[in-house]
Amino acid sequence: MLNPVVERITQALEERSKQRRDAYLSTLMQAAEQGRNTAHGCSNLAHVMAAQSDEQRLIMRQGGAAHIAIISSYNDMLSAHAPLKDYPDQLKAALYRYGASAQFASGVPAMCDGVTQGTAGMQLSLFSRDLIAQATAVGLSHAVFDGALYLGVCDKIVPGLLIGALHFGHLPAVFVPAGPMRSGLSNPEKAAVRERYAAGNATRDELLEAELAAYHEPGTCTFYGTANTNQLLMEALGLHVPGSAFVSPGSKLRHALTDEAARLLIENTTQGGHYLPLGEQINAKALINGAVAILSSGGSTNHTLHLPAIARAAGYELLWEDLAALSKVVPLLAHVYPSGVADVNQFHAAGGVGWLFAQLLDAGLMHSDVYTIAGRGLDRYTREPYLQTGRLCWRNIAISPLEKDILRPVIAPFATHSGLHMVTGNLGRAVIKTSAVQERYWSIKAPARVFDCEADALEAYDKGRLNGDLIMVVRFQGPAANGMPELHKLMPILANLQAKGQKVALVTDGRLSGASGKVLAAIHLTPEAAKGGPLSRVQDGDILEIDAKHDCLQLHLAEQEFAQRPTVQAPRNATAGYGLQLFAAQRRSVGPADQGASFLIED
After folding, report:
1. Per-residue pLDDT tens for 269-283?
2. What is the C-alpha separation between 115 and 65, in angstroms, rounded?
3. Domain assignment of residue 269, yes or no
């Protein structure tokens, strides 16, 4: 039986969103009825076929066969996306074997947050998600396609591709992953070197050697951050070939799974007999499944931004309250770094996605009756793929996980609460992830140390000015201020202070993403300081309290006195270059964090 809270939240999502969802589905049906653009004349179609081979032209001219778009975020700047280089040719060859034609319709931008950490380039990171959605729409705007294959992996790329794809929701969609790199230096060892470097106890050469040992070949980074949470989400939404999220790049199994993506897409087109438009597939049940999967695995806090934005693109209004309510009944079943010491390769070897979903389905925490690209029913995603004499097959996974320090059953979880909290109070509302934080650090009441940028906080640490118990406040980091950058450089210094015996925490309207670690952090605070939120009136020495157990974020100051304080204005962004000026319109129009921090304005 379905868990009553999961059922209630799903029903509430449906009811709250009925008008918006009905309008979305009406648009989708109109687009489906139109099919390929019938306004295309011979000249239009000649442009489409001009660069195609004779074989492809023949398929397209004869009609009756699916014509498929390929949208890719390939570049060799990102290790996670480098394996995608040869995917278009492989997919075209597979589609051709099944009698279909295909074209590479669009490349979308893909930046690496790991490269831009601590630099002004990070201010473009979250905005890139919506830009990717727009670039996806440009690629599909030619209206000559019957379905699309989406190639992407990392932080903002997969959500951006999905948002863009949902605006062409009459087209079937399959998302094609690349897989994680092999395990190198363990994530705890890497984190320890970072903390030693921040404390001045490791050289830059030592730090670089550790980083190179961790990030050492093509493939996704092996910690459970936003990129790998994306891959779990695509499985939960039924948009991957089952079990394909964490299969290594370059392997024979990965090659077979990529070919299977092409076959399944054809099956789901109007020419394939099992027409499955993406916009109908991503319904309330699918969205709740995605949320539960992320919560149970200790996934990235970035998805408290991405899930509402994805839901909105499909005609739904998903709230932080929905995620918080689910979090209380969804247990934490996985310990993958930063929540544990294992990486995603070890998670996959221990049973991974298939074992996790089987547990959640058996406990009534996920909807089983959903449509997936592989057919009706999420149970298709509880098995693992393998090759038998070169043929792709699936098999059941052992009832017990192979490693109980990585995966645990619902009846004996790591925690009964998944670890995602929404805290509220007189400063607004924020998100906390406690799955990697020891319970003794879940609450704190201490003086505020206020900074208007990450660099000032780092300078204070370097000069030994962060003494005693404190709650670090880093404001003017929200979407309207500077694009809501991730503030990862704060984590090693706060971890060092905590290790010395100080009680510390962070409050910010910025982000930390999936790599947020062992320090209590209230992030994504909204309303943000740049919009005149209460955070803009907090001063050094104010007593703040964060209590994750009781979902509280409070400034202890008389209401009248706080109201009379002047609002501090956002500092001028003096950074030159990086193209920041090109995104001024996005900063002006972007919505709040709890609605997805999107600059895409929808009716």
Report:
1. 999 989 999 999 999
2. 43
3. yes
